[in-house]
TrEMBL record:
<dbReference type="InterPro" id="IPR016204">
    <property type="entry name" value="HDH"/>
</dbReference>
<keyword id="KW-0486">Methionine biosynthesis</keyword>
<keyword id="KW-0028">Amino-acid biosynthesis</keyword>
<dbReference type="InterPro" id="IPR036291">
    <property type="entry name" value="NAD(P)-bd_dom_sf"/>
</dbReference>
<dbReference type="Pfam" id="PF03447">
    <property type="entry name" value="NAD_binding_3"/>
</dbReference>
<dbReference type="InterPro" id="IPR001342">
    <property type="entry name" value="HDH_cat"/>
</dbReference>
<protein>
    <recommendedName>
        <fullName>Homoserine dehydrogenase</fullName>
        <ecNumber>1.1.1.3</ecNumber>
    </recommendedName>
</protein>
<comment type="similarity">
    <text>Belongs to the homoserine dehydrogenase family.</text>
</comment>
<keyword id="KW-0791">Threonine biosynthesis</keyword>
<keyword id="KW-0521">NADP</keyword>
<dbReference type="InterPro" id="IPR045865">
    <property type="entry name" value="ACT-like_dom_sf"/>
</dbReference>
<comment type="function">
    <text>Catalyzes the conversion of L-aspartate-beta-semialdehyde (L-Asa) to L-homoserine (L-Hse), the third step in the biosynthesis of threonine and methionine from aspartate.</text>
</comment>
<feature type="domain" description="ACT">
    <location>
        <begin position="353"/>
        <end position="426"/>
    </location>
</feature>
<comment type="pathway">
    <text>Amino-acid biosynthesis; L-threonine biosynthesis; L-threonine from L-aspartate: step 3/5.</text>
</comment>
<comment type="pathway">
    <text>Amino-acid biosynthesis; L-methionine biosynthesis via de novo pathway; L-homoserine from L-aspartate: step 3/3.</text>
</comment>
<dbReference type="Pfam" id="PF00742">
    <property type="entry name" value="Homoserine_dh"/>
</dbReference>
<dbReference type="Pfam" id="PF01842">
    <property type="entry name" value="ACT"/>
</dbReference>
């Protein structure tokens, strides 16, 4: 039976995502009410610039005082789509203290302060949902937290940043320059307010921390995630990747060690074979592989950024939280129950593609191969191309630890025949 008193929603932020949340709440009001069992009412919208025209939003609902809005005491659900750490963090905690549950899309905040926010929610017996924080529209948090709760996830490998996938795809497929592609991604609403978070891998690292924590039922902090951005990927790297039958993607990789005692989480550009399903993920789409004991390989794929796709995930959470409120329950809280060690990057084992600029003279190849052998890094293939006394040497290794590879590169740089290390790229997904 439909309850007539509406559930009241406070929307914090009305930008790329918030404006779509408000639009769908208005245009799909009847459907939402039917699914929840009660109507939902937009009770207030907090923004920075109140005078901006906001299509479809009653100006009387707009306020710059987000704190007063969450303190009203009659708000059922606060939807936080402001972004950043403060004031979002304080507003969410204040919302719990004043009786509201919270839906957020804020991966930066959840990766940094997820444990404290979950504790605040639990203390007040309220919900904290954030499906939109990882991979936009793709249902990923709930499948990991609920559908796979009875399985043992061993690996999560994916493209979780739409902006960088859009840029890398453009560079690869059209030869577009980095800045041109970034400007287009920003105009399309994919990039963060400061796109450094996207291109330097911070956004993907935040998502990796959230995913690893939920997938492995442990706590992974943002600082635990190894991170490299994609700003140094060049057209030459794409050419090398093509020669290997690969392309380049910014990947988030979270792994559980075979002994089950530790996990790793990392974000970096990597070559992946063109035959791998992640190689064909285009534009701002995201895709995430989940490997677990019983299910085997699962792949989640869809739009990972943009207003409407992200709003879809926010609205899904809103429906779930509203249903919980009506039935007087809360959903699953933080999944952490084991404090697994998060291993440093040096212990990660993978393959590497290394381009060296070397002198084109006899003995160089042997000298370089000796350095690899001395550091216990086995070579898979070597290709040398020389011209006018200089040469480029491309070495692809077998699997080796990051520590061993770093030691090798350090020693290579000391050889007088090695002019420079042009690039080092990990090779994944084989
Ligand atoms: N864009 C995307 O594709 C995705 C975004 N997200 C996340 O969603 C969140 C929102 O992103 P997005 O919509 O792109 O961001 P925008 O920058 O487009 O929107 C931010 C909104 O917050 C408002 N705001 C900022 N500071 C304050 C404040 N102090 N008080 C009140 N309102 C404030 C802004 O007001 P005003 O309009 O006046 O400037 C604006 O409406 C972020 O956490 C982001 O990481 C998650 C997945 C995808
Ligand atoms: N800036 C992010 C938005 C979604 O999380 C991205 O590009 O993926």
């Amino acid at each position: 039976m439909m309850r007539t008193r509406p559930l009241k929603v406070a929307l914090l932020g009305c930008g790329v995502v918030g404006s779509e949340v408000a639009r769908i709440m208005t245009t799909h009001a009847d459907d939402l009410a039917a699914r929840i069992g009660a109507p939902v009412e937009l009770a207030g919208v907090a923004v920075r610039r109140p005078d901006r025209v906001r299509e479809g939003i009653d100006p009387a609902l707009v306020t710059t005082d987000a704190t007063a809005l969450v303190k009203r005491g009659d708000i059922d659900v606060v939807v936080e789509v402001i972004g950043g750490i403060e004031p979002a963090r304080t507003l969410i905690i204040t919302a719990f203290e004043h009786g509201a549950s919270v839906v957020s899309a804020n991966k930066a905040l959840l990766a940094q302060d997820g444990a404290a926010l979950h504790a605040a929610a639990e203390e007040q017996d309220k919900d904290l949902y954030y499906e939109a924080a990882v991979a936009g529209a793709i249902p990923l948090i709930r499948p990991l937290r609920e559908s796979l709760a009875g399985d043992k996830v061993n690996r999560v490998l994916g493209i979780v940043n739409g902006t960088t996938n859009f840029i890398l795809d453009k560079m690869d497929s059209t030869g577009a320059g980095y800045q041109e592609a970034l400007d287009e991604a920003t105009a399309l609403g994919y990039a963060e307010a400061d796109p450094t978070a996207d291109v330097e891998g911070f956004d993907a690292a935040a998502k990796a921390a959230i995913l690893a924590g939920i997938a492995f039922h442990t706590r992974v902090r943002l600082d635990d995630v190894y991170r490299e951005g994609m700003t140094e990927v060049t057209a030459a790297d794409f050419a090398s990747a093509k020669e290997m039958g690969c392309t380049i993607k910014l990947l988030a990789i979270c792994e559980r060690a075979a002994d089950g005692e530790s996990v790793t989480a990392r974000v970096h550009p990597a070559m992946i074979p063109l035959t791998h399903p992640l190689a064909s993920v285009r534009g701002a789409y995201n895709a995430v592989f989940v490997e677990s004991d019983a299910s085997g390989q699962l792949m989640f794929y869809g739009p990972g950024a943009g207003g409407a796709p992200t709003a879809s995930a926010v609205l899904g959470d809103l429906v779930a939280v509203c249903r919980n409120r009506l039935s007087g329950t809360t959903g699953p809280g933080e999944s952490a129950y084991a404090a697994l060690r998060v291993s440093p990057m040096g212990e990660v084992v993978t393959r590497y593609h290394i381009s060296l600029d070397v002198a084109d003279k006899p003995g160089v190849l042997a000298q370089v191969a000796t350095v690899f052998a001395e550091h216990g890094v086995s070579i898979d293939t070597v290709r040398q191309q020389g011209k006018d006394g200089e040469a480029s040497l491309v070495v692809v290794t077998h699997r080796a630890s990051d520590a061993a590879l770093n030691g090798t590169v350090e020693a290579l740089r000391k050889l007088d025949t090695v002019r420079g290390v042009a690039s080092i790229m990990r090779v994944e997904g084989e």
